[in-house]
Design brief:
With about 350 residues, the chain is an alpha/beta fold. The protein has nine helices and 13 strands. The strands form three sheets. The chain has a six-stranded mixed beta sheet. A five-stranded mixed β-barrel has the order 1-2-3-5-4.
Length: about 350
C-alpha cells in the first residue's frame, strides 16, 4: 500500500515541514553559571607540563605521596597553570598507568614570578607560582657576568615578594669582585661563590631547605650543572658556551619542580630555561625603585613627581652620584630601566 494517494498527487505531496521533530530537553535547556562543587577534589602540586598534560604530586609529604597525570578542565582553559601551582584534582587520581585526572581549580597563590617579552610589552608571562626564593646563577667568566640582567632578576623577585639569592659560578676562571661590587649595598642579598670543581653544595642546599626556590640564569652560566649536583637524579641537560659569540646554548626547555633532599630537610628546586633577556614591561615605576633599596632611600629626598632620570631637576639621586655618595654604576642601572619605562606608553 502506498504512503500517499496516487489519485491526488497535489494534496499529498510530502514536505519536510511535515516531519515531527522531537524536542531535545538538553539542547533547549538554558545554560547556567553554576558549577559542580567538586567536594571530592584532592590538592596536588604541579611539577611540570608537556603538551597539555600536567605532572601533579598528590598527598605531598604523606604516606600515599605519588605522581599522576592530569589535564585541565574547560573552565580553566584561559588560566595559566604553571609549575608550583596547587591544583584541585578530580577523576582518577590513583596514578596508575593510563589514568588521567582533571584539574578543576587552582588554589590561591602566595607569589607569582612573571616576565614579559620585552620592556614595551605589558602582557605578563607567568613563570612559576608559589616560590618564596629566587636563586640567580651568574658566571664569573665564560660567559662574562651581566650586572644589568641580574638587576632585572632582582626587580622581578622583589616585585613578586620573593627573596633573592645569588650564586657566582666559575670563580676559578675570574675574580668576581668587580662584578659583586655592583651589589655590595644590598644587605638582603646572600651571595655564594662556586668554583667548577668545588661548588658549595652544603651551603646552598641548607638555604633550600623548607623553601621553594626558582633557579634563573643566562644560558651557559652553569645553572643546570648546579641543579644536577644538588638533585642527583634531575638529569637536566647541560650545554656549553659558543667560543665565537660568547653565548650559552639553550639546554633546558621547560620549567620543572624537583625535590631537594638535604641532611637537614627537604625543599623544592624549580629549574627554568636559560634566558638572555628578561622583560619587565608588566612592572610599574615604583616597583623598580624598590628593587634598589640603597637608592630608594636617597630618592626619598627628591621633589614630588621626580622622574629620577639624568636630566631631572633637583634630583637627589643625581646629586648623590655627583658627590660620590652612591655608586655611579648603580644609578646608571636604575636610570636605564626608568628611561625605558618612561617611553613604554609610546609603543
Amino acid at each position: 500500500m502506498s504512503w500517499w494517494n496516487d489519485d491526488d498527487d497535489d494534496d499529498d505531496v510530502f514536505d519536510e515541514a511535515d516531519v515531527r521533530v522531537r524536542p531535545n530537553p538538553k539542547a533547549n535547556r538554558p545554560r547556567t553559571k553554576r558549577r559542580p562543587a567538586h567536594d571530592d577534589a584532592v590538592i596536588g602540586r604541579v611539577l611540570g607540563t608537556s603538551r597539555g598534560r600536567y605532572r601533579v604530586l598528590i598527598d605531598e609529604g604523606g604516606s600515599d605521596e605519588h605522581e599522576i597525570t592530569a589535564t585541565r578542565a574547560r573552565e580553566l582553559r584561559r588560566m595559566p597553570i604553571v609549575t608550583g601551582d596547587r591544583a584541585r584534582v578530580v577523576g582518577d587520581t590513583s596514578g596508575d598507568e593510563g589514568t588521567l585526572g582533571r584539574m578543576v581549580g587552582i588554589e590561591d597563590r602566595t607569589s607569582l614570578l612573571r616576565r614579559s617579552a620585552d620592556d614595551t610589552d605589558q602582557v605578563e608571562r607567568v613563570i612559576v607560582a608559589n616560590a618564596d626564593q629566587m636563586l640567580v646563577v651568574v658566571a664569573a667568566a665564560d660567559p662574562p657576568p651581566r650586572p644589568r640582567l641580574v638587576d632585572r632578576y632582582l626587580v622581578a623577585a622583589i616585585d613578586s615578594g620573593i627573596r633573592p639569592l645569588l650564586v657566582v659560578t666559575k670563580t676559578d676562571l675570574a675574580d668576581p669582585s668587580e662584578f659583586l661590587s655592583h651589589f655590595e649595598e644590598l644587605d638582603n642579598l646572600r651571595v655564594f661563590l662556586s668554583a667548577r670543581d668545588d661548588p658549595p653544595l652544603d651551603e646552598i642546599g641548607a638555604a633550600l631547605v623548607g623553601h621553594s626556590t626558582v633557579f634563573v640564569g643566562h644560558s651557559g652560566v652553569g645553572k643546570s650543572t648546579l641543579v644536577n649536583a644538588l638533585v642527583p637524579d634531575a638529569d637536566r641537560a647541560t650545554g656549553h658556551v659558543n667560543e665565537v659569540t660568547g653565548r650559552g646554548r639553550h639546554t633546558s626547555s621547560s620549567t620543572i619542580s624537583l625535590r631537594y633532599r638535604g641532611q637537614d630537610g627537604d625543599g623544592w628546586v624549580i629549574d627554568t630555561p636559560g634566558v638572555r633577556s628578561f622583560g619587565l614591561g608588566h612592572i610599574d615605576h615604583d616597583s623598580i625603585l624598590r628593587a634598589y633599596p640603597d637608592l630608594d632611600e636617597v630618592a626619598a629626598d627628591c621633589p614630588r613627581g621626580c622622574t629620577h632620570l639624568p636630566g631631572a631637576p633637583d634630583c637627589a639621586l643625581n646629586d648623590a652620584r655627583d658627590a660620590g655618595r652612591v655608586a655611579p654604576a648603580r644609578v646608571a642601572s636604575l636610570q636605564g630601566l626608568l628611561e625605558t619605562f618612561s617611553h613604554r606608553d609610546e609603543y
